[in-house]
TrEMBL record:
Biased composition (Basic and acidic residues): 507-520
Domain HNH nuclease: 373-425
Coiled coil: none
InterPro entries the record matches: DUF222, HNH, HNH_nuc
Superkingdom as given in the UniProt entry: Bacteria
Low complexity bias locations: 264-289
Annotated segments matching region Disordered: 264-297, 467-529
The name this protein goes by in its record: DUF222 domain-containing protein
Family listed: Belongs to the Rv1128c/1148c/1588c/1702c/1945/3466 family.
Amino acid sequence: MQTELTAPEANMFAPRHGSGFRGRLWATDPSLMSLEEAAAIVAETPHLMAWASAVQAAAVERVREGMSEVPAATREGQPERLDGNVAHALTVTEVALLQGTSEAAAARLVNTARELSSTHVAVMDALESGDITDQHARTIVDQAASLPESAREAFGIAALAAARTRAGRLRTPGEFRRTARDLREKMHPESIQVRKRAAAQERGVWLRPEDDGMVSLSALLPAETGMAFYRRIDAQAPSAHRAPGEHRTLPQLRADTLAHLGLGAALPGGSADGSADSPADGSAQSPADGSADGPAVPEDMLASVRAEVVVHVPASVVLGSDEGTAYLDGYGVVDAGTARRLAAEAPTWHRIFDDVDGAPLRIGRTAYRPPEPLRRFLRYRDGTCRFPGCTRPAESSDIDHTKEWQDGGGTDADNLAHLCARHHALKSLALIQARQEAARTASGGQYDEPTGTIVFTTMLTYERTTTPADRDRMLGQRDMPAQPFPLLPGEPVSDGTPDGRAPCPRPLDREQPLDREQPHVEGQPEAPF
């Protein structure tokens, strides 16, 4: 029995002002639903989501067409950027900002929308009618992508027919992926040798931060290489597992073996490359009766980690007076014990200052390239590419003049920011605009102190604001330790400190080697290592 809907009882979706959607959609309040009504909504929701996905794909494709049609007022004399795919890059950027998602996810959406609107029209119609889900449609597009263009449409139609079983049941996304993959193998006109050479061009390694101080590391490799590598890791783990006193599980031992190999640390009984541990094919070397207990795989990897990592650590954490947190670049928050051990292994300490008096933050028009102290400050301040939502680390991004050098912009902290290659190219082509804001007083006046706040304006005239990396949020409030810091050798004594110690030593631009016997920190209470 259907319950008549009234406004107070309904959960309603109403389009926001200016939205392309019209009308309203509502459902009975869940607390008032009968069991039959709730089941019907659960069954119908995938159809609604499929329809919304089709509408979204059509709208994204229209945005892409619009970006190609609108003449961009680009700067004269600029070389070709982004391999000529400026409209695609601009579309991805706009879609990511509109949806609040990453540009990788936006790129997948843009590419899928283009294929559904051109090559796979039949798939688009099935998605809009709710005959398949968005996952089915993406599987068809992904599997067809490796086919020659002339074979993609036929594959899409065949895959669409295979989306349901002979009994008419829609295959689950997992079932359908296997079915579509098998169908692709049958319909592919190229040999597997040719396809393997092409697929090998996509090999790579990826890092994904996980919770609680962990990460996932994955790789795409040729099958024979990956299998040999895994067998070599797998051969070490069982023998080590039999060692007296070993408490780790086999998966933990495999992970520790991989870490030692990746960090170049020698495994017990062999070299770092494992030449004495296993044959070239990765198979295990063990006695015929399998009775031998293998050498233990060390569990502690921090001794093998050196200065390739950057950790922002409050001085109170390094000195042991605070059990707060530190920040590992590229990952996030780590515990105080890990930070102190990384600091103890670091051959040098880099001091970073985040105030105007700590480093030369302005050199004006005297030089185009910022000096190293200023570059270090910018890396610390920005953390990543400063375009909204971009997570490309500052270390692999460009330092950009917000107001272009040729337009009179200075090499100053309040006119410099990190941008990744993509966003740097779009800004250089004047397809996105940027301005840095200075700190303001309550009355609206401006200070000279740079804040690092940047306002970006896109081709669709949307404005987005980004602020510097929030070190207080990452590390906690930066309270100075009660005891004064010792001075570096030769460091001038601050005025008014007759005991020869300064509560906050003057900042230095040079690097200082770490005294491992008596480690100390100079400068501000927060410094990266």
